[in-house]
Design goal:
The protein is built from four helices and eight strands. The protein is of the alpha/beta class.
């Protein structure tokens, strides 16, 4: 059963450190994880250099999934920068062939920050999609990977199948597509807690 996106208040009850990230529980059906360093941007409009436009539709895919996050009630907005400003962007998105190395997407250095904040305007994070594993798959399967990696860029960590397999931050979203490619309630709630 897929969960539907909704907005509303969040009732937080517990916060504990587990396996390198923080688990924040609202109730058994509503949970989200943050990286243990509690990484976040010190601003809510995050600039992105999209370097994937020459990669068989992946550039447009990244743009679409940034828009999907922007269309939620999450307090973070992704803003693409022009080619002249790409070196000043907060992070970059790419698509390339990395081989059959076990990951469909990766947000390199999304769990590394200083005093809880990512460095601004230095492309500290690179969100990547591995075309070796994603080329030839249906668009929504790949859109799920892109949306998931964007979640990492704002500080959201994985959830496992036992916690909630119907969130975009589900740790198996690349190989175990669950029919969702947009941020879900728990993903959005995590962003709200992180930035509101």
């Amino acid at each position: 059963m897929n969960r539907v996106i909704r907005s509303g208040a969040i009732a937080l009850t517990t916060a504990v450190a587990t396996y390198g990230y923080t688990v924040v529980d609202a109730n058994p059906a509503e949970a989200y994880h943050f990286f243990s360093a509690n990484c976040r941007w010190d601003h809510t409009t995050v600039t992105v250099a999209n370097l994937a436009y020459s990669q068989a539709g992946y550039g447009a895919g990244w743009d679409s999934m940034m828009t999907a996050w922007n269309n939620t009630v999450a307090e973070v907005e992704f803003k693409a920068v022009g080619s002249g400003d790409k070196d000043q962007a907060d992070f970059k998105v790419v698509a390339d062939y990395y081989g059959n190395i076990g990951w469909y997407g990766n947000a390199d250095k999304s769990n590394v920050c200083t005093n809880g904040h990512y460095p601004n305007g230095v492309q500290h994070i690179t969100a990547q999609v591995n075309r070796s594993l994603t080329d030839g798959r249906p668009n929504n399967n790949n859109n799920a990977v892109l949306t998931h990696e964007l979640g990492h860029t704002i500080g959201l960590a994985h959830m496992n199948v036992l916690e909630n397999p119907y969130v975009i931050m589900y740790d198996g979203i690349g190989y175990d597509y669950r029919g969702i490619w947009l941020p879900q309630t728990d993903d959005i709630d995590g962003a709200l807690v992180r930035y509101f």
